[in-house]
Amino acid sequence: EGVASGVDAKPTGTKYENESMQEPSTPSGGGNISTTQKQALNILSKYESAGAGGYNAVNQIGTKGGRGTSGFSGDFRSMKQHGGKSLTDMTISEIMSLQAERPGMSNQEWIRQGRLHAVGRYQFIGGTLPGVVSRSGIPTSAKFTPEVQDLLALQYLKEAGIGAWIGPS
Hints:
30% of the residues lie in helices and 11% in strands.
């Protein structure tokens, strides 16, 4: 409860495309993310992507109620299917396309095609990312930069609290 209080990530007036800043701006454009917000994001990433690629972390299939994976799990740039491309250089739309459900597709085919389940520093899954993006006001044409990932995580943290993430809970 204390982690989520005071977190505001409604992006207005911030330029998102082609930005990759070390210390993201607040959504209102008035300075950097607060120390409390940075601490919350660092806690999330410790459990979700530390050692697995950070802002470029992905996994292909979630297992064991979100505590396990199947297929590739690690830094997206190491996935042979995507030729070393960085997740942070892709648009949100491109990522959502790779996460989109394909009824009837086997896990083996999902893996072969390089499709994704959880993405980024905060491991957004395909069923969550579109809604958070929509509610945040960030266009799907924006790149999935560290700044955008941070803003989306703050948005979702504000909405759902820390319990929405499997790792920290």
